[in-house]
Protein backbone atom coordinates (compact mmCIF):
# COMPACT_ATOMS: atom_id res chain seq x y z
CA UNK A 1 0.00 0.00 0.00
CA UNK A 2 1.53 3.33 -1.01
CA UNK A 3 1.85 6.13 1.53
CA UNK A 4 1.02 9.61 0.24
CA UNK A 5 2.37 12.69 1.99
CA UNK A 6 0.39 15.88 1.42
CA UNK A 7 1.57 18.82 3.50
CA UNK A 8 1.02 17.55 7.07
CA UNK A 9 -1.44 14.84 6.16
CA UNK A 10 -0.62 11.21 5.82
CA UNK A 11 -2.92 8.91 3.91
CA UNK A 12 -2.64 5.17 3.65
CA UNK A 13 -4.41 4.55 0.40
CA UNK A 14 -4.92 1.51 -1.79
CA UNK A 15 -2.86 1.88 -5.03
CA UNK A 16 -6.03 2.12 -7.15
CA UNK A 17 -7.30 5.06 -5.15
CA UNK A 18 -4.74 7.60 -6.31
CA UNK A 19 -6.07 9.10 -9.49
CA UNK A 20 -4.22 12.29 -10.31
CA UNK A 21 -1.61 14.33 -8.44
CA UNK A 22 -0.29 17.68 -9.56
CA UNK A 23 1.43 20.27 -7.39
CA UNK A 24 -1.27 22.86 -7.98
CA UNK A 25 -4.29 20.66 -7.90
CA UNK A 26 -4.04 17.57 -5.80
CA UNK A 27 -6.96 15.27 -6.32
CA UNK A 28 -7.16 12.14 -4.25
CA UNK A 29 -9.53 9.37 -5.15
CA UNK A 30 -10.87 7.90 -1.96
CA UNK A 31 -13.09 5.08 -1.00
CA UNK A 32 -15.96 6.32 1.14
CA UNK A 33 -18.61 3.83 2.16
CA UNK A 34 -18.06 1.71 -0.94
CA UNK A 35 -18.44 4.69 -3.23
CA UNK A 36 -15.43 6.37 -4.66
CA UNK A 37 -15.19 10.08 -5.19
CA UNK A 38 -12.57 12.68 -5.86
CA UNK A 39 -11.64 14.96 -3.01
CA UNK A 40 -10.58 18.38 -4.32
CA UNK A 41 -7.52 19.98 -2.73
CA UNK A 42 -9.58 22.55 -0.86
CA UNK A 43 -11.27 19.84 1.21
CA UNK A 44 -8.37 17.50 1.86
CA UNK A 45 -7.30 19.17 5.10
CA UNK A 46 -10.79 19.60 6.52
CA UNK A 47 -11.91 16.07 5.60
CA UNK A 48 -8.74 14.64 7.04
CA UNK A 49 -9.34 16.56 10.28
CA UNK A 50 -12.93 15.28 10.40
CA UNK A 51 -11.54 11.74 10.11
CA UNK A 52 -8.97 12.26 12.85
CA UNK A 53 -11.50 13.88 15.19
CA UNK A 54 -13.86 10.88 14.94
CA UNK A 55 -13.34 9.81 18.60
CA UNK A 56 -13.98 13.40 19.79
CA UNK A 57 -17.15 13.66 17.70
CA UNK A 58 -18.48 10.32 18.98
CA UNK A 59 -17.65 11.37 22.52
CA UNK A 60 -19.53 14.66 22.07
CA UNK A 61 -22.58 12.72 20.86
CA UNK A 62 -22.30 10.30 23.80
CA UNK A 63 -22.37 13.18 26.31
CA UNK A 64 -25.28 14.88 24.55
CA UNK A 65 -27.58 11.84 24.23
CA UNK A 66 -27.19 10.87 27.88
CA UNK A 67 -29.39 13.85 28.81
CA UNK A 68 -33.02 12.65 28.40
CA UNK A 69 -34.35 15.88 26.90
CA UNK A 70 -37.89 14.64 26.22
CA UNK A 71 -39.95 17.75 25.50
CA UNK A 72 -43.34 16.02 25.68
CA UNK A 73 -42.76 14.76 29.26
CA UNK A 74 -43.36 17.57 31.74
CA UNK A 75 -41.42 15.75 34.47
CA UNK A 76 -38.34 15.70 32.23
CA UNK A 77 -38.44 19.42 31.37
CA UNK A 78 -35.40 20.13 33.62
CA UNK A 79 -33.45 17.73 31.40
CA UNK A 80 -34.32 19.76 28.31
CA UNK A 81 -32.91 22.82 30.08
CA UNK A 82 -29.81 20.81 31.03
CA UNK A 83 -29.22 19.89 27.40
CA UNK A 84 -29.46 23.56 26.41
CA UNK A 85 -26.71 24.25 29.00
CA UNK A 86 -24.64 21.44 27.52
CA UNK A 87 -24.87 23.09 24.10
CA UNK A 88 -23.97 26.50 25.50
CA UNK A 89 -20.84 24.95 27.08
CA UNK A 90 -19.83 23.24 23.84
CA UNK A 91 -20.41 26.37 21.76
CA UNK A 92 -18.37 28.41 24.24
CA UNK A 93 -15.46 25.95 24.13
CA UNK A 94 -15.48 26.03 20.33
CA UNK A 95 -15.25 29.82 20.21
CA UNK A 96 -18.82 30.69 19.14
CA UNK A 97 -19.80 34.21 20.17
CA UNK A 98 -22.95 36.16 21.09
CA UNK A 99 -24.36 32.97 22.67
CA UNK A 100 -27.88 33.63 23.90
CA UNK A 101 -30.56 31.48 25.48
CA UNK A 102 -33.82 32.99 24.28
CA UNK A 103 -36.62 32.58 26.80
CA UNK A 104 -39.93 31.58 25.19
CA UNK A 105 -42.11 32.01 28.29
CA UNK A 106 -44.73 29.68 29.74
CA UNK A 107 -46.09 26.69 27.80
CA UNK A 108 -49.69 27.31 26.67
CA UNK A 109 -52.48 24.80 27.54
CA UNK A 110 -53.27 21.92 27.43
CA UNK A 111 -50.63 21.27 30.07
CA UNK A 112 -50.59 19.72 33.59
CA UNK A 113 -48.40 22.41 35.17
CA UNK A 114 -49.80 25.85 34.26
CA UNK A 115 -46.41 27.42 35.05
CA UNK A 116 -44.37 25.07 32.87
CA UNK A 117 -41.48 27.01 31.32
CA UNK A 118 -40.68 26.45 27.65
CA UNK A 119 -37.04 25.46 27.00
CA UNK A 120 -34.78 28.17 25.57
CA UNK A 121 -33.70 28.55 21.96
CA UNK A 122 -29.90 28.56 21.81
CA UNK A 123 -28.58 31.22 19.44
CA UNK A 124 -24.92 31.77 18.62
CA UNK A 125 -22.58 33.01 15.93
CA UNK A 126 -19.34 31.81 14.42
CA UNK A 127 -17.75 34.62 12.46
CA UNK A 128 -19.11 38.03 11.52
CA UNK A 129 -17.21 39.01 8.38
CA UNK A 130 -19.34 41.39 6.27
CA UNK A 131 -17.63 40.06 3.13
CA UNK A 132 -18.90 36.54 3.78
CA UNK A 133 -22.37 35.06 3.34
CA UNK A 134 -24.30 34.18 6.48
CA UNK A 135 -25.87 30.73 6.87
CA UNK A 136 -28.33 29.97 9.65
CA UNK A 137 -28.33 26.34 10.76
CA UNK A 138 -31.36 25.08 12.65
CA UNK A 139 -31.57 21.91 14.72
CA UNK A 140 -33.44 20.64 17.76
CA UNK A 141 -31.96 19.27 20.95
CA UNK A 142 -35.16 17.77 22.37
CA UNK A 143 -36.03 14.15 21.64
CA UNK A 144 -38.94 11.75 21.53
CA UNK A 145 -39.66 9.66 24.65
CA UNK A 146 -37.82 6.32 24.99
CA UNK A 147 -37.87 3.52 27.57
CA UNK A 148 -35.92 0.28 27.66
CA UNK A 149 -39.27 -1.49 28.20
CA UNK A 150 -40.48 -0.26 24.78
CA UNK A 151 -38.21 -2.96 23.30
CA UNK A 152 -34.81 -1.28 23.05
CA UNK A 153 -31.83 -3.67 23.03
CA UNK A 154 -29.86 -1.29 25.26
CA UNK A 155 -30.44 1.79 27.43
CA UNK A 156 -31.88 4.46 25.06
CA UNK A 157 -30.02 7.32 26.76
CA UNK A 158 -26.61 5.63 26.66
CA UNK A 159 -24.76 5.75 23.37
CA UNK A 160 -23.86 2.28 22.10
CA UNK A 161 -20.94 2.46 19.68
CA UNK A 162 -20.95 -0.67 17.53
CA UNK A 163 -17.80 -0.37 15.41
CA UNK A 164 -18.42 -3.79 13.87
CA UNK A 165 -21.84 -2.87 12.50
CA UNK A 166 -20.77 0.76 12.12
CA UNK A 167 -23.63 2.12 14.23
CA UNK A 168 -24.21 4.74 16.91
CA UNK A 169 -27.35 3.76 18.82
CA UNK A 170 -29.27 6.05 21.20
CA UNK A 171 -32.40 8.19 21.32
CA UNK A 172 -31.53 11.36 19.41
CA UNK A 173 -28.61 9.84 17.50
CA UNK A 174 -30.28 10.62 14.16
CA UNK A 175 -33.18 12.86 15.33
CA UNK A 176 -31.71 15.35 15.84
CA UNK A 177 -28.78 15.44 18.26
CA UNK A 178 -26.28 13.81 15.88
CA UNK A 179 -26.96 16.15 12.93
CA UNK A 180 -27.12 19.22 15.22
CA UNK A 181 -23.70 18.38 16.66
CA UNK A 182 -22.50 17.88 13.09
CA UNK A 183 -22.43 21.68 12.66
CA UNK A 184 -20.36 22.16 15.83
CA UNK A 185 -18.00 19.40 14.73
CA UNK A 186 -17.56 21.01 11.31
CA UNK A 187 -16.54 24.28 12.95
CA UNK A 188 -14.00 22.39 15.08
CA UNK A 189 -12.60 20.61 12.00
CA UNK A 190 -12.15 23.87 10.07
CA UNK A 191 -10.58 25.52 13.10
CA UNK A 192 -8.14 22.75 13.91
CA UNK A 193 -7.14 22.22 10.29
CA UNK A 194 -6.25 25.90 9.97
CA UNK A 195 -8.60 26.40 7.01
CA UNK A 196 -10.57 29.63 6.93
CA UNK A 197 -14.23 29.12 7.78
CA UNK A 198 -16.08 29.99 4.56
CA UNK A 199 -19.22 31.67 5.92
CA UNK A 200 -20.61 33.40 8.98
CA UNK A 201 -22.61 30.78 10.84
CA UNK A 202 -25.67 31.49 12.99
CA UNK A 203 -27.14 28.66 15.07
CA UNK A 204 -30.76 28.35 16.10
CA UNK A 205 -31.21 25.26 18.27
CA UNK A 206 -34.65 24.68 19.82
CA UNK A 207 -35.89 22.35 22.55
CA UNK A 208 -39.58 21.93 21.61
CA UNK A 209 -39.53 20.63 18.02
CA UNK A 210 -40.93 17.23 18.96
CA UNK A 211 -43.79 19.02 20.70
CA UNK A 212 -44.85 21.47 18.03
CA UNK A 213 -42.10 24.12 18.26
CA UNK A 214 -44.23 26.14 20.68
CA UNK A 215 -43.11 29.76 20.97
CA UNK A 216 -40.56 29.60 18.18
CA UNK A 217 -42.58 31.32 15.44
CA UNK A 218 -42.95 34.46 17.54
CA UNK A 219 -39.24 34.43 18.51
CA UNK A 220 -38.17 34.23 14.85
CA UNK A 221 -40.50 37.09 13.96
CA UNK A 222 -39.04 39.15 16.83
CA UNK A 223 -35.44 38.41 15.82
CA UNK A 224 -35.82 38.60 12.03
CA UNK A 225 -34.49 42.15 12.01
CA UNK A 226 -32.07 41.80 14.91
CA UNK A 227 -30.28 38.53 15.68
CA UNK A 228 -31.16 37.03 12.28
CA UNK A 229 -30.53 40.18 10.26
CA UNK A 230 -28.35 39.48 7.23
CA UNK A 231 -28.99 35.73 7.07
CA UNK A 232 -28.62 34.65 3.43
CA UNK A 233 -29.72 31.04 3.68
CA UNK A 234 -31.16 28.55 6.16
CA UNK A 235 -30.04 24.94 6.29
CA UNK A 236 -31.81 22.28 8.36
CA UNK A 237 -30.37 18.85 8.98
CA UNK A 238 -33.32 17.10 10.64
CA UNK A 239 -34.69 14.50 8.27
CA UNK A 240 -33.48 11.32 6.62
CA UNK A 241 -32.52 9.77 3.33
CA UNK A 242 -35.42 8.01 1.65
CA UNK A 243 -33.62 4.66 1.70
CA UNK A 244 -30.30 3.37 2.97
CA UNK A 245 -27.90 3.86 0.08
CA UNK A 246 -28.53 7.03 -1.81
CA UNK A 247 -27.96 10.49 -0.30
CA UNK A 248 -30.75 13.01 -0.81
CA UNK A 249 -31.54 16.70 -0.51
CA UNK A 250 -35.05 17.60 0.57
CA UNK A 251 -37.31 20.38 -0.68
CA UNK A 252 -40.65 19.56 0.96
CA UNK A 253 -42.24 18.54 4.26
CA UNK A 254 -45.72 17.61 5.37
CA UNK A 255 -47.24 19.63 8.19
CA UNK A 256 -48.64 18.14 11.37
CA UNK A 257 -51.88 18.95 13.24
CA UNK A 258 -51.93 17.10 16.56
CA UNK A 259 -55.27 16.51 18.34
CA UNK A 260 -56.65 14.97 21.50
CA UNK A 261 -60.19 13.88 22.21
CA UNK A 262 -61.01 13.51 25.90
CA UNK A 263 -63.92 11.53 27.35
CA UNK A 264 -64.74 12.31 30.95
CA UNK A 265 -66.92 9.92 32.96
CA UNK A 266 -66.88 8.89 36.64
CA UNK A 267 -64.98 10.88 39.28
CA UNK A 268 -62.31 8.17 39.71
CA UNK A 269 -61.19 4.87 38.15
CA UNK A 270 -63.66 2.12 39.10
CA UNK A 271 -63.80 -1.66 39.75
CA UNK A 272 -65.18 -3.26 36.57
CA UNK A 273 -66.83 -6.06 38.54
CA UNK A 274 -68.81 -3.59 40.61
CA UNK A 275 -69.52 -0.93 37.98
CA UNK A 276 -69.14 -2.80 34.64
CA UNK A 277 -72.41 -2.90 32.71
CA UNK A 278 -73.89 -0.29 35.03
CA UNK A 279 -72.09 2.91 34.10
CA UNK A 280 -71.08 4.39 30.70
CA UNK A 281 -67.39 3.67 30.18
CA UNK A 282 -65.19 6.51 28.76
CA UNK A 283 -62.84 4.04 27.07
CA UNK A 284 -65.73 2.45 25.13
CA UNK A 285 -66.89 5.84 23.89
CA UNK A 286 -63.35 6.82 22.94
CA UNK A 287 -62.67 3.63 20.98
CA UNK A 288 -65.82 4.16 18.95
CA UNK A 289 -64.89 7.75 18.14
CA UNK A 290 -61.31 6.82 17.18
CA UNK A 291 -62.62 4.06 14.91
CA UNK A 292 -64.51 6.65 12.83
CA UNK A 293 -61.37 8.63 11.91
CA UNK A 294 -59.50 6.38 9.47
CA UNK A 295 -59.94 2.94 7.90
CA UNK A 296 -57.46 0.05 7.73
CA UNK A 297 -56.36 1.08 4.24
CA UNK A 298 -55.27 4.48 5.53
CA UNK A 299 -58.27 6.35 4.10
CA UNK A 300 -59.20 9.36 6.24
CA UNK A 301 -62.95 9.20 6.97
CA UNK A 302 -63.43 12.83 8.08
CA UNK A 303 -65.54 14.57 5.43
CA UNK A 304 -64.13 17.60 3.61
CA UNK A 305 -60.41 16.76 3.88
CA UNK A 306 -59.94 15.23 0.41
CA UNK A 307 -61.37 18.39 -1.18
CA UNK A 308 -58.57 20.52 0.35
CA UNK A 309 -55.72 18.51 -1.21
CA UNK A 310 -54.04 19.97 -4.32
CA UNK A 311 -54.58 17.77 -7.41
CA UNK A 312 -51.67 15.74 -8.86
CA UNK A 313 -50.23 17.23 -12.06
CA UNK A 314 -48.60 15.32 -14.96
CA UNK A 315 -45.32 17.16 -14.35
CA UNK A 316 -45.35 16.04 -10.74
CA UNK A 317 -46.00 12.40 -11.70
CA UNK A 318 -42.75 12.39 -13.69
CA UNK A 319 -40.75 13.33 -10.57
CA UNK A 320 -41.62 10.14 -8.71
CA UNK A 321 -40.37 7.89 -11.53
CA UNK A 322 -36.81 9.20 -11.20
CA UNK A 323 -36.48 8.55 -7.47
CA UNK A 324 -34.42 5.59 -6.33
CA UNK A 325 -36.74 3.65 -4.00
CA UNK A 326 -38.75 0.43 -3.77
CA UNK A 327 -41.35 -1.27 -1.62
CA UNK A 328 -38.60 -3.62 -0.40
CA UNK A 329 -36.74 -0.67 1.11
CA UNK A 330 -39.93 0.49 2.82
CA UNK A 331 -40.53 -3.01 4.21
CA UNK A 332 -36.91 -3.28 5.36
CA UNK A 333 -37.12 0.06 7.20
CA UNK A 334 -40.46 -0.93 8.79
CA UNK A 335 -39.18 -4.41 9.66
CA UNK A 336 -42.33 -5.95 8.17
CA UNK A 337 -44.24 -6.56 4.96
CA UNK A 338 -47.17 -4.38 5.91
CA UNK A 339 -47.00 -1.75 3.18
CA UNK A 340 -50.41 -0.59 1.97
CA UNK A 341 -48.95 0.05 -1.51
CA UNK A 342 -46.65 -1.97 -3.76
CA UNK A 343 -45.78 0.63 -6.43
CA UNK A 344 -43.00 3.12 -5.76
CA UNK A 345 -45.05 6.05 -7.08
CA UNK A 346 -47.99 5.23 -4.77
CA UNK A 347 -45.73 4.94 -1.72
CA UNK A 348 -44.00 8.23 -2.45
CA UNK A 349 -47.22 10.11 -3.12
CA UNK A 350 -48.80 8.81 0.10
CA UNK A 351 -45.69 9.72 2.07
CA UNK A 352 -45.13 13.14 0.54
CA UNK A 353 -48.21 14.70 -1.04
CA UNK A 354 -51.33 13.13 0.50
CA UNK A 355 -52.45 13.63 4.10
CA UNK A 356 -52.43 10.76 6.59
CA UNK A 357 -54.09 10.23 9.96
CA UNK A 358 -52.28 8.27 12.68
CA UNK A 359 -53.66 7.21 16.06
CA UNK A 360 -50.87 7.43 18.62
CA UNK A 361 -52.16 6.45 22.02
CA UNK A 362 -54.53 6.88 24.92
CA UNK A 363 -53.65 8.87 28.01
CA UNK A 364 -55.30 7.61 31.18
CA UNK A 365 -55.83 4.03 29.98
CA UNK A 366 -54.39 0.87 31.53
CA UNK A 367 -51.49 -0.18 29.28
CA UNK A 368 -49.11 -2.29 31.37
CA UNK A 369 -48.60 -6.04 31.36
CA UNK A 370 -51.04 -8.13 33.32
CA UNK A 371 -54.82 -7.90 33.61
CA UNK A 372 -55.96 -4.97 35.73
CA UNK A 373 -59.77 -4.94 35.96
CA UNK A 374 -60.26 -1.21 35.95
CA UNK A 375 -62.67 1.20 34.29
CA UNK A 376 -60.59 4.32 33.54
CA UNK A 377 -62.44 7.48 34.55
CA UNK A 378 -61.00 9.88 31.99
CA UNK A 379 -59.20 9.02 28.77
CA UNK A 380 -57.67 11.14 26.01
CA UNK A 381 -57.12 9.68 22.56
CA UNK A 382 -54.19 11.24 20.69
CA UNK A 383 -54.05 11.43 16.93
CA UNK A 384 -52.39 13.56 14.30
CA UNK A 385 -53.00 14.48 10.69
CA UNK A 386 -50.03 15.07 8.39
CA UNK A 387 -51.04 18.01 6.21
CA UNK A 388 -50.14 18.85 2.61
CA UNK A 389 -50.77 21.63 0.07
CA UNK A 390 -53.43 23.22 0.04
CA UNK A 391 -54.85 22.23 3.43
CA UNK A 392 -55.74 25.02 5.80
CA UNK A 393 -55.00 24.30 9.47
CA UNK A 394 -57.95 26.22 10.96
CA UNK A 395 -60.41 24.75 8.49
CA UNK A 396 -59.02 21.28 9.20
CA UNK A 397 -59.44 21.73 12.95
CA UNK A 398 -63.07 22.78 12.48
CA UNK A 399 -63.69 19.60 10.45
CA UNK A 400 -61.91 17.37 12.99
CA UNK A 401 -63.63 18.82 16.07
CA UNK A 402 -67.01 18.76 14.29
CA UNK A 403 -66.46 15.14 13.28
CA UNK A 404 -65.52 14.01 16.82
CA UNK A 405 -68.47 15.83 18.38
CA UNK A 406 -70.89 14.33 15.83
CA UNK A 407 -69.47 10.82 16.39
CA UNK A 408 -69.89 11.27 20.17
CA UNK A 409 -73.47 12.56 19.77
CA UNK A 410 -74.40 9.35 17.95
CA UNK A 411 -73.31 7.33 21.01
CA UNK A 412 -75.98 8.97 23.17
CA UNK A 413 -73.58 8.74 26.13
CA UNK A 414 -73.95 10.52 29.50
CA UNK A 415 -70.18 11.15 29.53
CA UNK A 416 -68.66 14.37 28.18
CA UNK A 417 -66.44 14.75 25.11
CA UNK A 418 -63.92 17.47 24.28
CA UNK A 419 -61.86 17.47 21.08
CA UNK A 420 -59.02 20.00 20.69
CA UNK A 421 -55.91 20.87 18.73
CA UNK A 422 -52.69 20.48 20.75
CA UNK A 423 -50.36 21.98 18.17
CA UNK A 424 -50.07 22.54 14.46
CA UNK A 425 -47.11 23.03 12.13
CA UNK A 426 -47.14 24.02 8.48
CA UNK A 427 -46.26 21.96 5.43
CA UNK A 428 -43.54 23.39 3.20
CA UNK A 429 -42.58 22.90 -0.45
CA UNK A 430 -39.74 24.79 -2.11
CA UNK A 431 -37.86 25.01 -5.37
CA UNK A 432 -34.77 22.77 -5.33
CA UNK A 433 -32.91 24.69 -8.07
CA UNK A 434 -31.07 27.48 -6.29
CA UNK A 435 -27.56 28.23 -5.06
CA UNK A 436 -27.98 26.32 -1.79
CA UNK A 437 -29.23 23.13 -3.42
CA UNK A 438 -26.58 23.37 -6.14
CA UNK A 439 -23.84 23.76 -3.51
CA UNK A 440 -25.14 20.84 -1.46
CA UNK A 441 -25.49 18.64 -4.56
CA UNK A 442 -21.84 19.36 -5.45
CA UNK A 443 -20.79 18.59 -1.89
CA UNK A 444 -22.71 15.31 -1.95
CA UNK A 445 -21.02 14.35 -5.23
CA UNK A 446 -17.59 15.03 -3.71
CA UNK A 447 -18.28 12.90 -0.65
CA UNK A 448 -20.41 10.07 -2.04
CA UNK A 449 -19.57 10.17 -5.73
CA UNK A 450 -23.23 10.38 -6.75
CA UNK A 451 -25.78 13.09 -7.45
CA UNK A 452 -28.33 13.19 -4.61
CA UNK A 453 -32.01 12.47 -5.24
CA UNK A 454 -34.30 15.44 -4.64
CA UNK A 455 -36.95 14.28 -2.19
CA UNK A 456 -39.81 15.48 -0.04
CA UNK A 457 -40.25 14.29 3.54
CA UNK A 458 -43.35 12.74 5.11
CA UNK A 459 -42.44 14.10 8.54
CA UNK A 460 -42.72 17.68 9.73
CA UNK A 461 -40.41 20.43 10.92
CA UNK A 462 -42.92 23.09 11.93
CA UNK A 463 -40.58 26.04 11.72
CA UNK A 464 -39.35 25.62 8.15
CA UNK A 465 -41.96 27.79 6.45
CA UNK A 466 -41.55 30.45 9.16
CA UNK A 467 -37.85 30.78 8.37
CA UNK A 468 -38.58 31.13 4.67
CA UNK A 469 -41.30 33.75 5.19
CA UNK A 470 -39.81 35.75 8.07
CA UNK A 471 -36.18 35.83 6.93
CA UNK A 472 -37.10 35.90 3.21
CA UNK A 473 -34.40 33.36 2.45
CA UNK A 474 -34.16 29.99 0.81
CA UNK A 475 -34.38 26.99 3.13
CA UNK A 476 -32.81 23.63 2.36
CA UNK A 477 -33.03 20.32 4.19
CA UNK A 478 -29.75 18.42 4.26
CA UNK A 479 -30.37 15.05 5.89
CA UNK A 480 -27.58 13.12 7.57
CA UNK A 481 -29.22 9.81 8.56
CA UNK A 482 -30.83 6.96 6.63
CA UNK A 483 -34.44 5.95 6.12
CA UNK A 484 -34.01 2.91 8.40
CA UNK A 485 -32.60 4.85 11.37
CA UNK A 486 -35.67 4.20 13.53
CA UNK A 487 -36.35 7.84 14.37
CA UNK A 488 -39.20 8.00 16.94
CA UNK A 489 -38.93 4.20 17.20
CA UNK A 490 -36.89 1.73 19.27
CA UNK A 491 -33.14 1.26 18.72
CA UNK A 492 -32.75 4.61 16.96
CA UNK A 493 -29.33 4.70 15.30
CA UNK A 494 -27.05 6.75 13.09
CA UNK A 495 -24.55 4.93 10.92
CA UNK A 496 -21.01 6.06 11.79
CA UNK A 497 -20.38 6.55 8.06
CA UNK A 498 -23.42 8.83 7.82
CA UNK A 499 -22.19 10.87 10.80
CA UNK A 500 -18.70 11.24 9.31
CA UNK A 501 -19.71 11.73 5.68
CA UNK A 502 -22.61 13.95 6.72
CA UNK A 503 -20.15 16.34 8.34
CA UNK A 504 -17.98 16.30 5.22
CA UNK A 505 -21.04 17.25 3.14
CA UNK A 506 -21.85 20.06 5.58
CA UNK A 507 -18.25 21.31 5.39
CA UNK A 508 -18.13 21.21 1.58
CA UNK A 509 -21.63 22.68 1.18
CA UNK A 510 -20.65 25.74 3.23
CA UNK A 511 -17.60 26.30 1.02
CA UNK A 512 -19.43 25.78 -2.28
CA UNK A 513 -22.27 28.00 -1.13
CA UNK A 514 -19.79 30.68 -0.01
CA UNK A 515 -18.12 30.60 -3.43
CA UNK A 516 -21.36 30.61 -5.41
CA UNK A 517 -22.02 33.87 -7.29
CA UNK A 518 -25.70 33.81 -6.27
CA UNK A 519 -27.32 33.94 -2.85
C1 LIG B 1 -38.70 15.25 10.73
C2 LIG B 1 -38.33 15.64 12.15
N1 LIG B 1 -37.10 15.02 12.50
C3 LIG B 1 -39.40 15.17 13.11
O1 LIG B 1 -39.32 14.11 13.65
N2 LIG B 1 -40.42 16.01 13.30
C4 LIG B 1 -41.57 15.71 14.11
C5 LIG B 1 -42.21 17.04 14.41
C6 LIG B 1 -43.47 16.97 15.18
C7 LIG B 1 -44.62 17.55 14.83
N3 LIG B 1 -45.48 17.31 15.81
C8 LIG B 1 -44.86 16.59 16.71
N4 LIG B 1 -43.62 16.41 16.34
C9 LIG B 1 -42.51 14.81 13.36
O2 LIG B 1 -42.52 14.82 12.13
O3 LIG B 1 -43.26 14.06 14.04
ZN1 LIG C 1 -36.26 15.95 14.28
ZN1 LIG D 1 -38.50 13.75 15.50
From TrEMBL:
Record keywords: Hydrolase, Manganese, Metal-binding, Metalloprotease, Protease
Active-site positions on this chain: 142, 209
InterPro entries: CNDP/DUG1, Cyt/Met_Dipeptidase, Peptidase_M20, Peptidase_M20_dimer
GO MF, any single term: metal ion binding
A GO cellular component annotation in the UniProt record: cytoplasm
Example of a GO biological process term: glutathione catabolic process
Annotated site location: Important for catalytic activity: 271
Required cofactor names: Mn(2+)
Keyword Repressor recorded: no
Residues involved in Mn(2+) 2 binding: 140, 175, 238
Peptidase M20 dimerisation domain: residues covered: 251-409
Family annotation (Pfam families): M20_dimer, Peptidase_M20
Protein name per UniProt: Peptidase M20 dimerisation domain-containing protein
Lineage: Eukaryota, Fungi, Dikarya, Ascomycota, Saccharomycotina
Gene this protein is translated from: TBLA0I03460
Amino acid sequence: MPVLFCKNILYNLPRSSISKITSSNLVVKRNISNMSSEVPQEFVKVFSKIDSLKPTFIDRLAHAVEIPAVSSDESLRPMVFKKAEFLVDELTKLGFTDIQKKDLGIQPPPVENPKLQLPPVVLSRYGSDPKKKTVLVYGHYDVQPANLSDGWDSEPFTLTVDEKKGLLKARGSTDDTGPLLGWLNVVQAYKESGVEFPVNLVTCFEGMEESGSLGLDAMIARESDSYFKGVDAVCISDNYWLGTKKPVLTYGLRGCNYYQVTINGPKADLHSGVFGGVIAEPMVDLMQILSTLVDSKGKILIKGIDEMVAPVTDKEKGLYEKIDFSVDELNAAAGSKTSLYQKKEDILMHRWRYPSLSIHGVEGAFYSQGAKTVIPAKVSGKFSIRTVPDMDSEKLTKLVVGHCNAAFEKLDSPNTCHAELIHDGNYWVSNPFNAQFTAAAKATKVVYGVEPDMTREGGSIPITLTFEEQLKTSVMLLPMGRGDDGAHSINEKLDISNYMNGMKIMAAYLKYYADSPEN
